[in-house]
Amino acid sequence: MSRESFDLDIRIDPERQRVAKQRAREGRRLMLLELGVAAALVLGFLASGASRRLKAALLGAGLASPWLLVGAYLGLVLVGYALAMAPLGWWSGYVRAHHYGLSTQTLRLWLADEAKSLALSLVFGIAAGEVIYWLLRTYPDTWWIWGSTFLAAASVLLGFVAPVLILPLFNTLTPLDDEELVARIRRLAERTGRRVAGVYTIDLSARTTAANAMFMGLGRTQRIALGDTLYSQYTPDEIETIVAHELGHQVHHDLYQGLALQTALLVGALYLAHLFLRWGVARFGFAGPGDVAALPLVALAVGLFSLVTMPLANAHSRWRERLADRFSLQATGNGAALARAMTRLANQNLSEIDPPRWAVWLLYSHPPLAERIALGSEAPA
Ligand SMILES: [Zn+2]
How do 173-175 and 213-216 pair as beta strands? Predict the structure, then answer.
């Protein structure tokens, strides 16, 4: 990959910020609309009796075994939901992304990604659903404890295999082929005193013009991936601060922390589903909590719980991101490069650097870029 020449006196582009603000406002409205449509779909499916009629039709088609019934019901519901949400997804993920010049995706690639995502959600959704419904039939009072334990274990397993089995369905990871950067990263790693995850580049440019870097995997599949959209447009100093930020996530065990929080939230979500089922089974005339036609009640409980706890999960994430930024400052001692990298990210990704407080509190998994830029530029040189 060849790098372009770099402007070291990079500033926030006011015109890009104006567009970024408009894009952020639209994005928030669109998110609200998507939430409203999803809630209306699930409520309508429940209250109209459509869920019960779907189950009756599947029973009528001879699917008497609960395993076959649950599998067929979940498959049809997942496909139906994906199709119903597809127009909004196309608008926000394809049309708008192109409108703002952030997408390089062809319609064909977008459709292929959607089809693969749906196939994955069918495989994982039906597998997890079969286990949860078996638990619901077998332990109607304590299923939510075993269910959340099972889902937590499944998330750990998924965390291990995702970088090697799932990510390659969409992207290609290539070991970083850059002697200078590899040497710098090795020096960084020596300062942390750890066996450090491998560094790769990832072909984000097939889909987007936006830059990103990520830390992924658990145990032996841990790795740092630098988007080619970042690698080709940032100076080695700047990339070093970003790699150091990702190393911070590794050193602070942030993926394990995230899994622990997710597990706690899962217990809460499934307990609320348990309460919804206890209330709703009689109200809507279902056969019992293990009746698959009562699934909309579970979806409503889990959706409501996730929505209410979203600020908490985001606050936790922003805290870990701040720690990773501080780790990067300490490890590289180069606040100016960190500030430049964050400024480039804002300009390139059309990111609003100073979103409204309430939006940060509700929706932001990372601190606003203005804060991250200030952290770098105010650090003692
Ligand atoms: Zn991070």
Answer: unpaired
What does the pLDDT look like over 92-148, one tens digit per residue? 999 999 999 999 999 999 999 999 999 999 999 999 999 999 999 999 999 999 999
Distance 63 CA to ligand 1 centre (A): 47
Do the Cβ atoms of 379 and 342 come closer than 8 Å?
no
**CA of residue 324 to ligand 1 center, whole Å:** 6
Is residue 9, in this structure, part of any structural domain at all?
A: no
Q: Measured in angstroms, how far is the CA atom of residue 367 from the centroid of ligand 1?
A: 10
Structural tokens at position 170: 């969409």
Mean pLDDT of 212-233: 92
Expressed in angstroms and rounded, the spacing between residue 310 Cα and the centre of ligand 1 is 18
**What is the 8-class DSSP label of residue 4?**
P
Give distance in angstroms: CA of 182 to centre of ligand 1.
20
Interval between CA 356 and ligand 1 midpoint (Å): 21
Rounded to the nearest whole angstrom, what is the distance from the C-alpha of residue 107 to the centroid of ligand 1? Answer: 30
Distance 154 CA to ligand 1 centre (A): 24
Same domain, 30 and 95: yes
In whole angstroms, give the CA distance from residue 328 to residue 348: 21
Q: What are phi and psi of 86, to 5 degrees?
A: -60, -40
Q: Which domain holds residue 188?
A: 174-247
CA of 297 to the centre of ligand 1 (A): 35
Q: How far is the CA of 246 from the centre of ligand 1 (A)?
A: 6
Rounded distance from Cα 365 to ligand 1 centre (Å)? 9
For 62: left if phi > 0, alpha if psi spans -120 to 50, otherwise beta; the answer is left
| 205, 262: one domain | no
Give me the helices (H) in the chain, please: 14-47, 50-60, 66-90, 96-99, 107-138, 143-161, 179-192, 228-231, 236-251, 254-283, 295-332, 335-349, 357-363, 369-377
User: Please, what is the average pLDDT of the chain?
Assistant: 95
Measured at the CA of 43, the angle between CA 271 and CA 149, to 5 degrees, comes to 25
- Ligand 1 centre distance from Cα of residue 322 (Å): 8
Residue 291: pLDDT over 70: yes
In the reported structure, the alpha carbon of residue 89 is separated from the centroid of ligand 1 by a whole-number distance in angstroms of 26
Residues 71 and 121 in one domain: yes
Q: What is the DSSP letter of 204?
A: G
End residue of a domain, out of 247, 264, 296 = 247
